[in-house]
Structures are given as C-alpha cells and as structure tokens.
Specification:
This protein has about 90 residues and is α+β, with helices and mostly antiparallel strands. The protein has one helix spanning about 15-30, and strands at about 1-5, 5-10, 35-40, 40-45, 55-60, 65-70. The protein contains one helix and six strands. The strands form three sheets. It has a two-stranded antiparallel sheet with strand order 1-2.
Length: about 90
C-alpha cells in the first residue's frame, strides 16, 4: 500500500516458507546494495550502504507474538549508540 511519495507499506498473510523467501531476498538485496519492494499499489527502491543500525524487538503477550526488525542507514557515517552484541538462534 503506497501511503505517500517515498514510502511503501504492505501487509498480508503469509506462511513461514513465503516469509523465509522474502527474508532471503532482503538478505540478497542488502548484499547487492539495492532493495526493491512493490505491489499493485506502488513500489520503492532502497540503496543500503555503509554502517546500518539494526533494531530487533520481540514480544509475547497472551496468544500473540510479534517480531519487529528495523534497519536504518543514512548517507553520512555518524556513530550510533550500540546495545551490545545481538544473539539470534533459530530452531
């Protein structure tokens, strides 16, 4: 869903395998330096480079679990505050 110029947002139900494929595509796009997102309402291209800030938030409340991943970067190389080394384990 294209909300405004310079912003792309999409929401849909996906199974684990589809989400894994999307995460793999994001991984390849970061390595390549170009991420393209699009659907029938619009598209956007991002060019990740330099140092990037990673924020991970994981929560469980009642029956609902949530994982938020946010990756940000700027064209300048300003040092960012770090929370220490991130550990991620998968099954």
């Amino acid at each position: 869903m294209m909300e405004r110029k310079g912003r792309f947002r999409h929401q849909s139900l996906q199974d684990k395998k589809s989400i894994q494929k999307m995460l793999d595509a994001i991984k390849r796009g970061i390595a390549k330096g170009e991420l393209e997102f699009g659907d029938e309402t619009g598209d956007i291209t991002l060019e990740p480079k330099g140092l990037m800030n990673l924020r991970v938030t994981a929560t469980v409340e009642d029956d609902q679990s949530r994982l938020d991943l946010r990756i940000t970067w700027t064209s300048d190389s300003i040092d960012r505050k770090e929370s220490g080394k991130l550990k991620v384990k998968g099954g």
